[in-house]
Design a protein that fits this description.
The chain is of the alpha+beta class. The chain has helices at about 55-60, 160-185, 195-220, 225-235, 240-250, 250-255, 260-270, and strands spanning about 20, 65-75, 85-90, 95-100, 105-115, 120-125, 130-140, 140-150, 155.
Length: about 270
């Protein structure tokens, strides 16, 4: 049986505006030279808030959207003392660090304010082949993360959306592991053309499994932000019939989101 792990695909956030944070800023991108292990984080700075055009109309017209506080604490096992851990979001050219702190032993923490619409970010720690990337929904409450170097046994929990999303992350990581191993094996010089073609077909099948599993999970979770987020992320990979089924099932509390209107418009162009 073909087995293999790859980091989850980088995605934009279709649901919420960009949140601001209050912990120390790393002086350079996540790949910058690592400061000395004894460096301390700077005092918290005043929060400034920016809006994401994807939901600005919904926020202005609906009083349920407001700023809330969050904390993100956790442990990162198997990394060096003083290693930087960054809270990142997707940018034009990849992930961009919006906040960074150094590990104190194995512990780290972030805090800040965000809109009460879950915002997908990524915890990034380590360098090179040992870099670990973990998805996390930034939302109101106390988020707890547990990360282990070189292993896909990461956990994020403590708030509603992160708890809903956890089983999806675990299942998808299993498939990504298989894709990674298949890709690596297909590149072996000893493989014949027939072997490489067989691996390619296997990888395509695994990718289709991701889309199908995502559709099934989103369909079951449209009553929470995890399902809405996945619908927004994958609607261009779903069939017209799948999108219609999901649009019909979207509850009224989410039906006014601009992203739902965008999906409906996109789906109509595919008829």
């Amino acid at each position: 049986m073909l087995v293999c792990i790859a980091a989850p695909a980088q995605t934009r956030n279709p649901l919420a505006k960009k949140p601001a944070t209050t912990t120390a800023k790393k002086p350079a991108a996540t790949t910058a030279k690592k400061p000395a292990a004894t460096a301390k984080t700077a005092p918290a700075k005043k929060v400034t808030t920016t809006k994401n055009p994807g939901i600005v109309k919904a926020v202005q017209s609906n009083p349920q959207y407001k700023e809330v506080s969050y904390t993100l604490r956790g442990k990162a096992h198997g990394f060096q003392e003083g290693e930087w851990i960054s809270l990142c979001e997707p940018g034009k050219n990849g992930l961009v660090a919006t906040d960074s702190v150094q590990l104190q032993g194995e512990e780290f923490s972030f805090r800040g304010r965000t809109l009460n619409v879950p915002y997908m970010k990524y915890l990034v720690v380590g360098q090179g082949v040992h870099k670990t990337l973990v998805e996390v929904f930034i939302e109101e409450g106390n988020i707890v993360a547990d990360i282990t170097a070189d292993k896909r046994i990461d956990q994020v929990k403590g708030t509603v959306t992160n708890n809903f999303y956890a089983p999806y992350r675990d299942s998808i990581n299993t498939i990504y592991t298989q894709i990674y191993e298949c890709t690596r094996e297909s590149m072996r010089l000893s493989n014949s053309a027939d072997d490489r073609e067989a691996y390619k077909l296997g990888i395509d099948s695994l990718r289709n499994q991701i889309v199908q599993y995502t559709y099934t999970f989103a369909r079951k979770n449209l009553s929470n932000w995890a399902g809405i987020y996945l619908f927004a992320e994958y609607h261009k990979r779903f069939t017209v019939a799948q999108n219609k089924a999901l649009l019909t099932a979207v509850p009224s509390k989410f039906s006014g989101l601009p992203i739902i209107a965008e999906i409906r418009k996109f789906n109509n162009t595919r008829k």
